[in-house]
Amino acid sequence: MITCSAPGKVYLFGEHAVVYGQSAICCAIDLRTRVQATKHDSIVIESVLGTTALDFEIHPYVSSVIEKMKGHANIEGVRIQIRSELPVGSGLGSSAAVTVATLQALNQLYACNLQLEDIANIGHTIEREIQGNASPTDTYVSTMGGVVLIPERRKLKDLDCQLVIGNTRKSSSTKDLVSNVAQLRQEFPDIIDPILDNIGKMAHLAEEPVNRYDYETTGKLMNVNHGLLDAIGVGGAELSALVYAARNAGAISAKITGAGGGGCIVALANETSASAVASAIKNIGAEAILTRNTHEGVRLEP
Ligand code: MEV
C-alpha cells in the first residue's frame, strides 16, 4: 500500500492568460489531496463522489491516470482511496492534485521510475484531454510545489504571508469558462488580446517584488489583475463581494483565483489582519480558509 499527497494551488497572477502562452505566477498551498493505492483483484475508486470501477463520468481524472499508467505498469487491479482538503471545482486545483497524487502513488506502487517532470507532463496531458485547452500550470505546481513563474517554470521565493481563501461554494466548470474566454477573444480580438497581454506583463513585473517579499507592490498588481479578470467575463457579483469584503477588512490584496465563474478568491494578508479578513468573508456567507504557501509538491506519505 502506498499513500501520496499533492497540494492545491492559487494564482497570484495569470489564470486564463496562461492558456494563451502569457506568463502566470502560481503558488502551491497547504491544502492537500491524499491518494492511497493498494493492489487489488479489480479496479475500485473510492472518494466522496462514490465508489466506482473505471468511470470517466464520476472519476474522470483518476480513471485517466489508471489508463495512462497501464502503459508503464501491468495494472490488473488496484484500489484507489481519495481524501481531499480541497473543495472540488472551486478553482483551487483539486483536479490537478488528485491527478498528480494518483500518478505518483501508482508510480511508487508499481516501481515505474517516473521522475517528477514525467508526472507533471502526464498530468498535463490528462487535464488537456479532459478539459480541452488546459495549461500545464496546475499540474506543474501541484507536482513541484512552491511559487512558480509559468511558462518559464522558474521558482520564486516562497511567500511569507497569510493566504485567505474565500469560497463561494459554487462550483464552476473550468472547461466552460476557458471556452467563454476563447469566444470573447474571437469576437473582440483587438480588445481581449491586449488584456491577456497585460495580465502576462503583470506576472513578469511581480517577479521581483515577490522575490523581495514586497507584498504591497505585489498586491497592487493583483488587484489590477482582478479587474482584468472581471473584464474578460470570469467574475461575478459574489466573487466581487468577497474581494471587496477582504480588502475592506485589511487584506493587502484580493482577487479571483482559478477559472472564476463561482469558485474562490484569494487574499494576501499579514499575520495581524488575516483573521479579520477571514471573518469578513464568513460574514457574507462564504467559507473562509486560512492557509499558506507550501514548498512541497507531490510527496510520499508515511
Ligand atoms: C484554472 O485553474 C486556470 C485556467 O487558466 C485554466 C488553465 O490554466 O488550464 C483558467
From TrEMBL:
UniProt pathway annotation: Isoprenoid biosynthesis; isopentenyl diphosphate biosynthesis via mevalonate pathway; isopentenyl diphosphate from (R)-mevalonate: step 1/3
GO biological process: isopentenyl diphosphate biosynthetic process, mevalonate pathway
One GO cellular component, as annotated: cytosol
Subcellular location(s) of the protein: Cytoplasm
Cross-referenced InterPro entries: GalKase_N, GHMP_kinase_C_dom, GHMP_kinase_C_sf, GHMP_kinase_N_dom, GHMP_knse_ATP-bd_CS, Mev_gal_kin, Mevalonate_kinase_arc, Ribosomal_Su5_D2-typ_SF
Keyword annotations of the record: ATP-binding, Cytoplasm, Isoprene biosynthesis, Kinase, Lipid biosynthesis, Lipid metabolism, Magnesium, Nucleotide-binding, Transferase
Native source species: Methanolobus halotolerans
Residue span, GHMP kinase N-terminal domain: 61-146
Domain Galactokinase N-terminal per the UniProt entry, residue ranges: 3-37
Enzyme class: transferase
Listed name of the protein: Mevalonate kinase
Magnesium is among the record's keywords: yes
Annotated function: Catalyzes the phosphorylation of (R)-mevalonate (MVA) to (R)-mevalonate 5-phosphate (MVAP). Functions in the mevalonate (MVA) pathway leading to isopentenyl diphosphate (IPP), a key precursor for the biosynthesis of isoprenoid compounds such as archaeal membrane lipids.
Entry annotation: catalytic residues: 138 (proton acceptor)
Pfam families (UniProt xref): GalKase_gal_bdg (PF10509), GHMP_kinases_C (PF08544), GHMP_kinases_N (PF00288)
Domain GHMP kinase C-terminal: from-to ranges: 214-283
Highest taxon of source: Archaea
